[in-house]
Amino acid sequence: MGLAVERCPSPACATSAGAPTPDLSCDEASIHCYNDEAISCDPSVRRLKSQKRRAAEARLAERACVLMGLAAPPSPAPPLPCPPLPAPHSAADDEVCVLACSDCPPVAAPLWCGMDVKLPAIDWAAAFASRHSPLISDAPTGASYLLPGALPVILVEQASALPQALEALRASMRDEVLGIDLEWRPCFTASAAEGSRVALMQLASSHLCVLVRLCCMGKTFPHCLRSLLSDPSLVIVGYAWDGADEKRMQCSYGLGRNLFQRYFDVQAVSESLGYHGLGLISLARRVLQCDASKSKRITMSNWEARKLGCSQIRYAALDAYLTGHLFRSLRLWHGSPSACLTCASALGKVWYGSFPA
Questions:
Q1: How many CB atoms lie within 10 A of CB 197?
Q2: 51 in a domain, yes or no?
């Protein structure tokens, strides 16, 4: 089912209206159906009148007609058939497809709202509440984990296994957005900070996260990883990348933002929508209404350890997943059918289920 609502064309509305509080609940897509046969939040579920009630109503109608000397009432319509069984559940059923914004004025630089995105339904409360990351398999491509909330993770420690893991990452992508984050061994002195290199790179689509242990792959940046990050068909999104992350990449490999053909910073996007001075955790609390608090002990742990612990894997993967999901969520807010604060007209354009042909 498609739901298309045009954005308010008034320039005054665009400039005078403040930023509304987002409501990104998955219940936005629910539809209420009311008639004499059913009352249900799901149109596919109908609560039929019981046969006993129908028979009683028919007898009352017949008796009324006899008393008034009228002809017998027509026989009641046969009961409605039972609704068909729902189609098998798929990942696409839990996605909200947000179309590229066609209302923002064209500018020389690419717009952060200029591409279609697909926002999956993720149980962030479960993902952040649990402290376990069960190991699913230990294949040559890397160890596979499944975080609570059904978030798969591949941990790659060998350069030979990296190409296959990145192919799996590409295959999992439902849109162009790829979240990125970095981790490195904590530095407590200025001299140690100069020599500390990137230990872990996290890359996440909406349905898979790949953790690349660069500290195990020598001092040369892997060619397949360079090709992925410089792919012009992908949109790389990070959070406050231009600070410590950019400096660490430049010190480690002489690479950074210049490698990304298309990049957007979630912090800059959130500020353009009225969220100023918020870190990743605070923004997640405001936009997703979830507690994404981090343990300082894990933040300052040794990311170059011989073997990463489950808590480190969970921490790193959730950071990358959360970065991409926040970008998609802000896109949904920017394009959602909310009411203009000035003229009460509907704003935005959203499609539920699939993009129109």
A1: 15
A2: no
Torsion of CA 10, 11, 15, 17, to 10 degrees: 0
Q: What angle do CA 195, 197, 203 make, to 5 degrees?
A: 165
Structure tokens at 344: 């009460």
Other CB atoms closer than 10 Å to residue 119's CB: what's the count?
Answer: 24
| Between 6 and 94, residue with greater pLDDT | 94
Domain membership of residue 26 (yes or no) is no
Rounded to 10°, the helix 280-287/310-335 angle is: 50
Look at the chain and report how many structural domains it folds into.
Answer: 1
- What is the rounded distance in angstroms from the CA atom of residue 61 to the CA atom of residue 67? 10
Q: How far apart are CA 129 and CA 123, in angstroms?
A: 10
Beta bridge partners of 237: 179, 264
Cα separation, 156 vs 164, in Å, equals 10
The amino acid at 253:
Y
**What is the model's pTM?**
0.67
DSSP string, 30-96: ---EESSS-EESSTT---PPPHHHHHHHHHHHHHHHHHTTPPPPPPPPPPPPPPPPPPPP-GGGGEE
Task: Name the CA dihedral angle for 216, 218, 221, 224, rounded to a multiple of 10 degrees.
Answer: -60
Contact 145, 134 (CB under 8 A): yes
167-218 confidence digits (pLDDT tens):
999 999 999 999 999 999 987 766 666 668 999 999 999 999 999 999 999 9
Question: Does residue 252 lie within any of the structural domains?
Answer: yes
- Spatial CA neighbour of 147 closest among 136, 166, 134: 134
Tens of pLDDT, residue by residue over 50-88, are: 676 777 777 777 776 666 666 555 565 555 454 444 444
Q: Determine the longest span between alpha carbons in the chain, in angstroms.
A: 104
Domain with 326, as residue range(s), is: 92-352
Residue 220 is given by DSSP the state S
Ramachandran class of 310: left when φ > 0, alpha when ψ lies in -120 to 50, beta otherwise? alpha
- 151 falls within a domain: yes
CATH number (domain holding residue 106): 3.30.420.10
